[in-house]
Write a structure and sequence with these properties.
Blueprint lengths: L2 H13 L1 H9 L5 H26 L15 H25 L6 H28 L1 H27 L4 H25 L7
Amino acid sequence: MTLKDYIQNAIATLRNPRAGARHVMAVAMERQDRWLVLALVVILNTIIAEIFLLLMGAEDAAMFPIPALNNPLVLSFVQVGAMFLLAIGIDVVGRRFKGTGTLDQAILLIAWLQFIMICIQVVQLVIFAVAPPIGALVSLISLIIMAWLLTVFVAELHGFQSLGVVFLCIIAGIFTFSVGVAILLTLLGFQITV
């Protein structure tokens, strides 16, 4: 597949997320290759984040609550860890609620979600360079799209019907994880600024 094919599939997934999720889950690939794909999209995402930082300038570059995350290498490791935990969390929690998905499918779905978000971030980057206030609006819309896609992907992965319940479980899981990470980072001596 070419980059154009991937972009066309991303657009098709935005139009019909359940069909897009089924298409991704049907891909045959070894687990180690799935992790490599996930790592690749994290690297691409880090590059986009660094371009944003360059456009914003040093005085506005405090986009991360932990200053160390302004380092691209640290940011990449944190993102890989977060995606790793997200994939495992989706697999473990989903199966606890009688879900039918697998970890391998969850890894690819998270990688695909990340790729779609990178495409949106590229559009946002162009808009931000031309009209920063509209770029901020696109940022809000992208968060909504990410939440929607993640909800539909998890529902399709595990065969769940109620998107509302899936969304609430995701929010509860993210909140619990965020609090846990914040406590851990505080114990390790990091200063988190809001």
